[in-house]
Input
Amino acid sequence: MVLLSNGCATPVGVERLDEQAAHRELNANILSTDKPSEYSRQVLERTGLAQLFRDDPQRALGELYSGLGKPDERDRLFALAELSFAYAEEARNQSYYLASAVYAYAFLFPPNAANALQENMIPVCDSRLTCTIEVWLQVLLPAMERKSTLIPAGSTCHLAHSI
Output
């Protein structure tokens, strides 16, 4: 009888969190924990790139970029902004900081924003909005304080990753 009752127990448990701990966990991102947010990790899992990102972040970012234009473009742009920042921090690679800022801008200001339907807008309470703005500012403000440019005057920026 004991065997039967143990076999029916669920492996799922519940742990109570206070409000602050729950808020920190729900809003965790690359800037607050040095780890990508749950949103970005979900995009990597959905696209089958989670392991590749751990092994070869440059290639994984290129693969993620190659999927832009699909219905999940906004999700990909957010993940590209955050994950490019994560890789830039790890590799100290200036071009990935720039890519992060550009992806953040594209996430925040889609080209068709003026004609966007209400469901395409990012709700103010969406933690991706805050994270994206913070990543964007984290890259741009230091460059502005140094009075330096991320892209030399007269040059163009192409967002193409090598795969």
